[in-house]
What we know:
cytoplasm; cell cycle; globular; 16 helices; 2 domains; mainly alpha; hpI Integrase, Chain A; Site-specific recombinase XerD; DNA integration; 3 strands; 50% helix; 387 residues; three-stranded antiparallel β-sheet; DNA recombination
Amino acid sequence: MTEPLLSLMTWPHTLPPALSGGNGSNRAPASVARQIAANDDVAAIGLWLAEYHDSPHTFRSYRKEAERLLLWATQVRGKPVSSLTREDVIAYEAFLAQPPATWCDAGLARHGEHRRLFVGPLAERSRRQALGILAGLFNYLVRAGYLAGSPFVLQRRRARRGPRRTIERYLDRALWEEVLRVVDGWSQSTARERQRYERARWVLRFLYETALRAAEAAAADEGDFQSIRGRWWLHTVGKGGVEGTIPLGDGLMDDFARYRRFHGLPALPSGDGNTPVILGIAGRPSPLTPTAVYQIVKDAFRRVAETLQRQDEVKATRVRRASTHWLRHTAATHQAEDGTPIHHIQQNLRHSSIGTTSIYVHAEEDARHASTTKTRIGTSVPHGDVP
């Protein structure tokens, strides 16, 4: 059992056989090739969670949803997760919308054996997110040959309410260029200051040009760089094990060469080397954690915000909120504004659906707003003369 991964401390360490999932009614038949060795639900879910060990925020979010479902299935429904049906999923969605008071008791601790798993009823958006995470879990277990099928595949698509969702957590081009200018103005009077400047300069540009997630950037090494027909590409393995290649421009490769030369490395990466793309502060070749990459970016944005605060509080506030994922959104938004075909942006971000990528396309809405408001201004009439 993978108890340390799940931290399942709200029931006995060993579930009774009837609830463990060893003989769940939705278990795949013996004739199906198994890709995992897990023989019970807790172990199987633990392996799914292990796929996200390098992304702490995702891991914690996914673990919470897995714990909630396991508790509900075994304590409320009286069956193992591997026996859940479509009817159970419908009932669980209703449970998320109105969990009983005993699951939301503010007197319960946030951690430990008898902790609180709900603050209160989940809003529609939170329920969709929870069910989406669990659908991913079940799809994984089906592909692994552990389950015969997923009761989530029958879920109907609900029409999205309200305006079309767009991404707003990005920096517009003028503000992004201002960020780079401020960073370039940092003091470099000592060796340590120069090291911090060169690393921050490279990390910001690297994440912006590649649209990588923090975990992907932390895992990248020089062996992931490939020169094909005179053009550079970066190979990466991202969320859910999705592989992809990202085109790299000459400007980024010049920045990479500068960063490598600063630390005494050859300008061009070796195709069979394993030196990390992002080095330690003094050039140590040990790879950084995703959290360390995140902190480098947050620290850079914090310092930039302190500079901008003296002139423009709005800009400073926006930059202070920015993070590694903002750089990913910024990259996608700027690519869309530059006229990059949306299916190319989809490949660069490794989205499974082009609908996900479309949330970065702001140009059409901006043009509609500009043309509409310009027309209104040009044809405005005094309030008393409104026809």
